[in-house]
Amino acid sequence: MKRITLLVMLLVGFISFGQGDTCATATTLTNGTFSGSTVGASNNPTPFCGTSDGSGGDVWYTFTDASGSGFTVDLTTCSSNTNYDTKLRVYSGNCGGLNCVTGDDDDPSCPTSGLQSTVNFTTDGSSTYYVKVHGFGSSEGNFDLTASGIVIGAPPIIACPMDIVANNDPGVCGAVVNFADAVAVDPEDGPLAVTQTAGGASGTVFPIGDTTVTFEATDSDGNTSMCSFTVTIIDNEDPTIACAADQTQTNDPGMCGADVVVVPPTPMDNCPTASAPVVAGPVTAMNFSGGDLVDTPSTVMGLSNSVGGDVSVDVTWTGDFGFSTETFALEGPDGSVVLSVPGGQTGDCGQFSSSFAVNETTWNGWITTFGTDLTFTLQGDPDVDLFCALNEFQLTATLGMGATLVNDYTGTDDASAFYPVGTTTVTWTFTDPSGNSVDCTQDITVTDDEAPVIVCQGEQTVPPLIASAAPGTPITDNATFSETLTVSEDYNITDLNVDMDITHTWTGDITITLESPAGTIVTVFDDIDGCSANDITTLFDDESANALDCDPGGAGSGGDAFPEDDYIPSNPLDAFDGESTMGDWILTIEDDAGGDTGTLNAFALIFDFPPVVSPPLDVVLDANGMATIPASDLILSASDNCGPVTV
C-alpha cells in the first residue's frame, strides 16, 4: 500500500511541474497574469542576476522578441494572491548559456507586500528571454506573475503620408486638406486595415498651425504599430482695418490741450480678432518641512491651447531668497525645469518676479496630455528657510500672441489720452495671431479756443491764476523725475488746487509731491492712497467733499481709480497759503515698484488770491505836451493757456 501511495505522489509531481519546472520546459509568457506555485518545484541553480539563488523551488517562463526594434517589459509578483517572499530573475540567450538581464528581490512600492518583486527591462529586438520565479532562502508558495509590454511575433509595419504644409483658404481660418490613409502590412498576416486615431479627417478644414494626424494598425497577435504626420496650415492672409473718423475737440479750460476719448478702429480678419487670454493661477503658500522649503505644487486651472505663438508665464514670489544659494526653481507639468532664478536680487523676504516662455508645440502637448488644469511645482531647497512673514508664489499665463491692436500714441489698444493743441496723427496697427499686420491713421485735432488774459496798468486783477504744462513725460518703474513750472505773476496765495492728468496702471505705485518757490513741500498724493486700479485724472482740492478713496474696481471710464471730478489731497495744500505765486514750482513723481508704468500727460496749478488793483501809470509830458509810452509799460501781466503772449 505504501508503494502505491509513493507512485501516485510521483505522478502528481510530474503532472504539476513538468511544464515550467526547468528552463528547458519554460511556459510561454504573454501579456497578462499567470498564476503558479513553487511549492514542491525543483531547484535549478543559475548564475547570479540582481539577486542570489535560494534553496526552494523555482518556476520558469519564456518569450522571444522578434520585433526587430525591442520593447519595454514590466514583470511583477505584486498581488494579494502571492503569499511568500518572492524573487525574480531575467536572462537572455539559451538554457545552456544564460546571460543576466535583470533581477529583483523586494519591491518596497508593492501595495500588497514589500517582499514581492518587480523588474522592468528593454529587449533587444531579437533574443529569447527566460524568467525565473523563485523565493528568498527556502521560501516557497503561490504567486501571480503579471506581464505587460511583450510583443508577440513581429509587429505590423505602417507608413504614413509625408507632412503637409498649406496656406489658408481665402477668408477661412484654416484650409481643407486631403490625404491618403496610412498603409500597413504584417509579416505574418499580410496587409492590415488602419484606423485614424488623432487629427482631422481627410477633406475637412484643418485649423491654422500644426495638427498631428495619427494612424494605427493591429495584427492577429495583438501587436499595434502607429505612425503620425503633421498638417501645417499657414495663415498668409493680411487682416483689414478701418479707422474711425478724424476727431476735433476744443481745449480743456486752462490747458494747452484736451483729454480726448478716441474712437478705436474696426479690425477684421479671417481668424478671430480677440487678444490672447490671460489666466492667473492661485496665490500658493510654499510648503516647509523642518523649516526647509519642500516641493510645492501650484495648479493653474482653466487653461487652453495657445492662441498663436509661444505662451508667456509671469511668476511673482515672496520669501527667503536673499542669497545667491537660495534658488527659485519651477518644474513644468512634465517635470522639466522651466524657470530657475538664483536669489540675491533683493533682500530676504522681498518680492521677486520673473517670466518664462513655453514653445507653442510644447504647451499644446501639455494641454493634450495633462488637460486644461496644469500643475507647476516649486522645487524644494534646504537653503530656503521659513522665517519670512509671507512665503508664496503665483503664476499668470498669457496664452500666446492672440491678435493685437495698438496705437503709436499711447502704445496700447486705447488711444484716449491728453492731446496738445494742434493736430496729432495716430497710427493704429492690427496684428493677427499669425503675425500678419495692417495699419490705418486717424487725426486728433485740439483747437485753442481760450483767449489770453491781459491786465493793464490801473486795472483790477481777479483770480484764478492758472499755470499749466503738458510734458508727456514717461513714468518708468522704480524711478523719480521732476517737472518745473515757472510762474511770472506775483500774487499772495489764499488757496491752491492741483489738477492732474496721469495715465498709469496700478496707482498704488506712485507718489506726487509739489515744492513751492519758497521751499515748502507737500505730498499731494501718497502711494498708500492708491490701489490696483488705473490713472489719476482729477483735481486735488482741500475743499473737496470727496475723501481720497481709491476704487479698485475702476468705476470710472477706462477703469479709473479716481472717477470723481475732485478729491481731498493726501496732505493739505493750505501749507502754501500766504506764499507768493512767482517763481519755480517743482512737481516730482516717484514710481516705487516694478511691472506698471505710465505717463504724466499734463498738470495745472490753480491759484486763488485777493483781487489786485495796480497803480495807474504816471506819464510825464515833454515841453510840447507829448509823451512816448512803450506798449509794455501799459501791461501789468499777460498770460495764456498755451504759453507766452505777444503784445
Question: Which key terms come to mind for this protein?
Answer:
single chain; 647 residues; mainly beta; 6-stranded mixed beta sheet; 5-stranded mixed beta sheet; 2 helices; elongated; disordered N terminus
Describe it.
It is a single chain. The protein is mainly beta. It has two helices and 52 strands. Strands 41, 42, 44, 47, 48 and 50 form a six-stranded mixed sheet that branches.
The proportion of strand residues reads 35-45%
Q: Output the radius of gyration.
A: 41 Å
Q: Assign a percent range to the helix content.
A: under 10%
Number of strands: 52
Structural class, by secondary structure, is mainly beta
> Main sheet, how many strands, which sense, barrel?
6 strands, mixed
Total of helices: 2
Shape, principal axes of CA atoms: elongated
Mean pLDDT: 90
Low-confidence stretches: 1-17
First and last CA, distance: 145 Å
Please describe the topology of this protein.
Layout: H1 2-17, E1 27-28, E2 32-37, E3 59-64, E4 72-76, E5 86-94, E6 97-104, E7 118-122, E8 128-135, E9 142-148, E10 157-159, E11 164-167, E12 174-177, E13 183-186, E14 190-192, E15 195-198, E16 204-207, E17 209-218, E18 224-234, E19 240-242, E20 247-250, E21 257-260, E22 266-268, E23 278-280, E24 284-285, E25 287-289, E26 292-294, E27 296-300, E28 311-318, E29 327-331, E30 337-342, E31 351-358, H2 360-370, E32 374-378, E33 381-385, E34 392-398, E35 404-407, E36 417-420, E37 422-431, E38 437-447, E39 453-456, E40 460-461, E41 465-469, E42 473-475, E43 479-487, E44 495-504, E45 510-515, E46 521-525, E47 536-540, E48 566-567, E49 583-591, E50 598-608, E51 612-613, E52 635-639
Parallel strand pairs: 1-3, 11-18, 20-38, 47-48
Antiparallel strand pairs: 2-9, 3-8, 4-7, 4-9, 5-6, 5-8, 10-13, 12-16, 13-14, 15-17, 17-18, 19-22, 21-36, 23-34, 24-34, 25-26, 26-33, 27-32, 28-31, 28-34, 29-30, 29-32, 35-37, 37-38, 39-52, 40-51, 41-50, 42-50, 43-49, 44-47, 44-50, 45-46, 45-49
